[in-house]
Structures are given as structure tokens and as C-alpha cells.
Give the backbone structure.
Amino acid sequence: MTRPLRIGIVAGEASGDLLGAGLIAAIKIRVPDAEFVGIAGPRMLATGCQSLFAQEKLAVMGLTEVLPHVREILAIRKQLLHYFIANPPDVFVGVDAPSFNTWLELKLRQHGVKTVHYVSPSVWAWRQYRVKKIARAVDHMLTLFPFEAQFYAQQGMQVTFVGHPLANTIPLEDQQLQARQTLGIATDTKMIAILPGSRLSEIKYLLGDFLATARHCYNESRELRFMIPAVGSRARALIETMVAAQAPDMPIRIVNDRAHDVMAAADVVLLASGTATLEALLLKRPMVVAYRVSRLTAWIARRFLHIKHFALPNLLADQILVPEFIQEQINPQPMAEKVLYYLFNAAERQRLVRHFTDIHQELRCDASNKAAAVVLALAGVV
């Protein structure tokens, strides 16, 4: 009797958990008794994946911000390596978390384990010299976006553009009416969604300026309403504290999770750069994007950056589709002007919807099944 297919998999944060869960589900359709073990979030756990460590241990952003957690993260990585060497999987899949996973992939590949990396590290954007190490560590790269696949192909790596699972799960048609019914928002309400990020550090860096932006908007139009989704109890507590201190008199509703519904219901989204901007794009929502990290992290990053834009919609379109504000550019007054421009300019909203729809269709590639086919082929399953 042969043993079941064993796949090692490590996802470092919520977006990786989503991708990992889709991949596991697609593989289990073809190989129902396949086993998965590594580091998983709640969605992956729900598919039956075994998690050896809590996923939130890896969910730390920034270069300097990670320093207090380095010892624990390195210890986890070393323990995982020992586990996988003692219990070799048929293939290992690192989902995003490149700093963590690339090292692990390199060591495992040296021990004869086939490796896949799902979600391209941003080597096309900064520190391009890393591609040499990635090529040594990874048997096959799976990219979410077409420009990434072109970059790796030029480096001589095995790569497949799989698209993004969200592009398949989110309908091409507008979902605002349904989302408003779900959240109990009247159809004629002017609503702005505020998403400062899911990490506490992101909230601390951005929410104050986002609330100041909302204040400028509210002063211009008292009919406006605002909604903030909070991911987890600690994030909600921090958001409530900041709203109470800075905007106690404003019509701001905080909801648990439900970021998807909140964005879909909004007229305009004010948000942190990241996966949420892709979701807002797929939901066809006008957006204003901002991002801030520590000054030292920003200084280091700028020494190695090779991109003109940082917001995903702008990267995918290779042009400025949506306003983006980074570090010292973050300023509530001009951000509010952009939000209000979208709110009261129907022609501009329609222009964005056309661009967003084109990108949505390009990314709609049945990503989970395409990724599953690559992983199973490397594992020797036809």
C-alpha cells in the first residue's frame, strides 16, 4: 500500500492563506487523500491542512519592524527545516513570505525536495539581485500577474502565470447593491470605505491620516458616511481608540472583518497598498491608495527600488489609474480632494470601471487549478 501524497506548504499571512486554501482545494479534487502540513491560516486549516506553528507568528511587515521578532521567526524556520528533512514531502510550496520561504526552499531543494513558490517575490521591483538565489531555491515559480512571469522567463526560470483566484471568485458584474443589502446601507447613501490595513503597525501608521482625510471630506459634504472593517479584536480595539480620539463626532461605523462587503458597498475606497487594492479593483471601486512604513525601512527600500508606481492597479496597467501617496507624500487635504473627485465625477468612475474590467478579465485564469496542475506535475502525479 503506497502512502498518500504529502505536500509541505507555508503561508505567511492572510492573503497567502487565501491562496493556499484555493490550491489545497484544487489538489484535493484530483487527489482526495493528499496530506498537507506546514504553516496555515484559518482557511487552510478548514481544508484539513496541519499547521505546525501559528500563522500570525510570520505576519510581520517592514525591514526594521521585523527586528524584534527575528529570533522567534528564525527558530520556527529552523524547526520546520528539521521537520521536513525528517519527513520529506513529495513537493514543498512556499506561498508568498519570500524572506522566510526562499531560504527554506533552498535548503529543502538541496535535500532533494521539489519546490514551488506561489506569488512572486517583488524582485522585479527592488533588490533584483535576489533572483539568482530564487533560481537556486525554486523549481517552479507561480505568478499572479503577467508582467512577473515575463521577468522570470527572461531570467531562464521555469514559471507559470496562473492569474489570481480572486479574479475568478469575484463576479465581473457590480456587486454594490447586494453588499449594501447585506450591511444594511441605503442605496442612496454616499459611503466611503476606510481600510488602513490588517496589521496593527499599518493601522498605527495610516489610520490617523485616513481619519483626517475623512474629516476633510465630511466638512465638504455632511451626507457622507464612513465604514471601517477591523480584522481581529486587537485591530478593532486600536481602531476604536483612534476613532474616539480623532473623530468621535463623525458617522463612522466599525464592523468586524467583512472587508470585501465593505469595499463592494462603498462609493470610494481609501486604503493601504496591498492585496486589498486588487480586491477593490476587481470590485470596480474607485480608490485612493497610501502606504507608510518606518523612515529607516523607507530609506533602505528606496536604495533598491526599480518601479515607477507602487499601487497594484497602476502596476498592472503600467500607468497611473488611481492616486497613490507614499511616506511623506501622505497628506489628508489632497487625499480628500481625490476621494471627493471620484465621489462626484461619474465620468471618471466609468473610465476606471472600463480599465478595471479589462484587468479583471486578464487575471481570470482559474488560478487555483493552474497552480494545482504545476504542483502535482512536480510531485509526479499526472
